[in-house]
Write a structure and sequence with these properties.
single chain; mainly beta; seven-stranded mixed β-sheet; 0% helix
Length: 118
Amino acid sequence: QVQVVESGGGLVQPGGSLRLSCEASGIIFSIYTMGWYRQAPGKQRELAARIIGSGTTDYADSVKGRFAISRDGAKNTVYLQMNSLKPEDTAVYYCNAQHDFSTTMSYWGRGTQVTVSS
């Protein structure tokens, strides 16, 4: 049984930092691209950052230079370090595990709320 579980969200002031964690179980972690997506109220879900097994990363333009994604194969965990947070970063952040060779093998977590407000 595959499980994807996020943690680390919360309320932070503008300019502050948060680190999100996502643990995936029941998969061969090294052959999954791990991604962080976010969905703000009234908006579509969008990619924030993703990382493939080799460590290559990809970021949305809106978070480049502020967010950093990393993965730990020993813990089956992916992290999203978010710095210089802005109110427009407020959203529910979802973790996704996407099999590198199968489009149907895609698993989502339930999401964690990040609120940036003074």
